[in-house]
Specification:
single chain; 122 residues; mainly alpha; rod-shaped
Length: 122
């Protein structure tokens, strides 16, 4: 059995009030942490959706550019068609990759900024 303290608190109500205040603060912090986690999840979902929309747009743009160039090539001489198509495919693939990387970096920066703002506001 624990031995009673030789010096009991002079103001037991003060210790109880401090314990109540700490419990309330802990509950508030837990609520804020849950809210931040929820907001981060929604932000992640939103960013994933934006990335998917951007990817679909880039793929559609790529397909349209390839179709236009293929049409253009079909009207030109056949001697250099193959080399030109391969060169164009490589160029467009590089541009598509650069655009995706730039968008991903931009989305990541926005996510970091919004996370920092959420933490600041909590």
């Amino acid at each position: 059995a624990p031995t009673p303290s030789p010096n009991p608190p002079r103001f037991p109500w003060l210790a109880a009030a401090a314990a109540d205040a700490k419990a309330a603060l802990d509950a508030t912090l837990a609520t804020h942490a849950a809210a931040i986690a929820h907001l981060e999840q929604k932000l992640t979902e939103s960013t994933a959706h934006q990335l998917e929309q951007q990817r679909l747009h880039l793929e559609a743009t790529h397909a349209a550019a390839m179709e236009a160039k293929t049409r253009e090539l079909s009207e030109s001489s056949t001697a250099d068609k193959s080399a030109t198509v391969k060169e164009l495919e490589a160029k467009l693939a590089g541009e598509k990759e650069q655009a995706l990387e730039a968008f991903a970096a931009e989305a990541h920066a926005a996510l970091q900024s919004q996370r920092a703002q959420l933490v600041e506001e909590s």
